[in-house]
Design a protein that fits this description.
Distance between the termini: 61 Å
CATH class of the largest domain: Alpha Beta
Order of helices and strands: HEHHEHEHEHEHEEEHHHEEHEEH
CATH superfamily of the largest domain: Type I PLP-dependent aspartate aminotransferase-like (Major domain)
Number of domains: 2
Oligomer: single chain
Radius of gyration: 21 Å
Bound molecules: pyridoxal-5'-phosphate
Largest sheet: 7 strands, mixed
CATH topology of the largest domain: Aspartate Aminotransferase, domain 2
Number of strands: 12
Helix content: 25-40%
């Protein structure tokens, strides 16, 4: 038998554990913040009209057609945009660009648990900055991150759902000595965002995904916007053909229908407000959400129990073990009927 060895860093690390993707279709799946509504009608047309014989050829390597659409949406130039195979790919490109054994990554805790995993792959130390008891950024965040070369600010944050005050994020960008990546995976559900700041700060990268607000988790597309200097360096790191051809057509169609985005967003925000109201009546507390999910605490502070009972009733939400996070469950905002089912189970348990 041949012997083989992984790199010590790979040997030592745990892989990222994605939220469960069950095969059984009669479950209410509100565990990974997917959109309960279908993609825009133009997406169906783009798929129908796509000429499969074109798949013989490689896709355009930098997804220029899509970069142009994104650039006009955000009023930047195409050379300020990089496209990725989901925003996970963008995060990986950023961490490979800016982090290594001597160049730590800083991120908040709790936040998206993929960041430390990506850093470990690059043998980069991770500076974890604890959020306050109310899940806000500590006022000395930039100082705590000082040894890092890249700081990721997740705004709105996951799994908590709150958006740190814009002024505080500005201060961090101005004070921190390295690159700041604001992960805006959920920004379409928030009151404001940092996209406009890319014109002001040359150390700022803003990343977005099409997985949530555009109902396109299945095709994997994300992007980042930043000054030309940052984007051209990150372009060196990305896989040559990191966005496939069909995805480029689908993404262009989805981005072109902002009216549809607004419609589904309004529906999700209305359902979110109703869920907040009804859970409050049952004695729950929650983190005020700027996203398509709610991080809620049941009246007995036992997130695990509520998670288990929902599951016994074929409803899958997300549970994050831990002293503070373990009091909560994270409920993705589904359709009204799906959220009714959550409320019905909650009323039986706590009503
Ligand atoms: C904060 C945050 N960033 C990025 C992502 C990844 O999104 P994508 O599907 O574009 O890889 C997620 C997905 O859950 C997320 O919660």
């Amino acid at each position: 038998m041949k012997t083989f060895r992984f790199r010590p860093a790979v040997e030592a690390m745990d892989g990222y554990v994605p939220g469960e993707q069950p095969k059984i279709s009669n479950l209410i799946k509100i565990n990974t913040n997917e959109n309960p509504y279908p993609p825009a009608p133009g997406v169906y047309e783009a798929i129908r009209d796509f000429a499969a014989e074109k798949l013989r050829l490689y896709p355009q390597p930098t997804a220029d057609m899509v970069r142009e659409t994104i650039a006009s949406l955000h009023r930047v130039t195409p050379d300020m945009v990089i496209a990725g195979n989901g925003s996970d790919d963008i995060l990986n490109i950023a961490i490979r660009s800016f982090c290594g054994p001597e160049l730590p990554l800083a991120c908040f805790d709790p936040s998206y648990s993929l960041y430390p995993v990506l850093a470990r792959m690059q043998e980069a130390p991770v500076v974890r900055i604890p959020l306050t008891a109310g899940f806000e950024m500590p006022s000395d965040a930039a100082e705590q991150a000082a040894s890092a070369n890249l700081l990721i600010v997740t705004r709105p944050n996951a799994p908590t759902g709150n958006a740190f005050p814009l002024a505080a994020v500005r201060r961090v960008i101005e004070t921190f000595g390295g690159v700041v990546l604001v992960d805006e995976a959920y920004a379409d559900f928030a009151d404001d965002n940092c996209m406009g700041l890319v014109h002001e700060y040359d150390n700022l990268i803003v990343s977005r995904t099409m997985s949530k607000s555009y109902s396109l988790a299945g095709i994997r597309f994300g992007y980042a916007v930043a000054g030309r200097g940052l984007i051209s360096g990150m372009m060196k790191i990305k896989d040559s053909y990191n966005v496939d051809m069909l995805t480029q057509y689908i993404v262009r169609a989805a981005l072109s229908d902002q009216a549809y985005l607004n419609k589904t967003r309004s529906a999700i925000l209305a359902t979110r407000a109703r869920l907040e109201r009804e859970l409050t009546k049952l004695g729950f507390s929650y983190v005020p959400s700027q996203t398509n999910f709610l991080f809620a605490v049941p009246p007995d502070n036992d997130g695990r129990r509520f998670f288990d009972v929902l599951r016994e009733n074929a409803v899958i939400v997300r549970y994050f073990p831990g002293e503070v996070t373990g009091r909560h469950v994270r409920i993705s905002i589904g359709t009204d009927a799906e959220i009714d089912k959550v409320l019905e189970i909650a009323a039986q348990l706590y009503g």
